[in-house]
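User: I'm new to structure prediction. If I give you an amino acid sequence, what do you actually give back? Let's try with this one:
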Amino acid sequence: MKNALFLCFCLLAGVIAGGLLAQLCAGIPALSWLAYSKVLRFAPQLDLSVLRLNLDFVLELSAAHILTLALAIFVYRRVEI
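Assistant: Good question. You get back a string of structure tokens that encode the predicted 3D arrangement of the chain. For your 81 residues, that looks like this:
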């Protein structure tokens, strides 16, 4: 259980750090490649004329996200709990 919580913490920290890193590097020409991102969108809709349901799932991954997630997994595997 502790390992699963620590893994979730590491992944969450990696995602947050990747987002911050991408925003910081977007304005620097030499590091702007870290802010390059792709958006994956899944938007199912259900319309029954009485009930209308729209779900919108958006996943935006940048190069910085991928690097920091890889670093988070590396840290998780190296640290003993």
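You can read the tokens as a compact description of the fold. Here is one thing that stands out. DSSP finds two helices and four strands in the chain.
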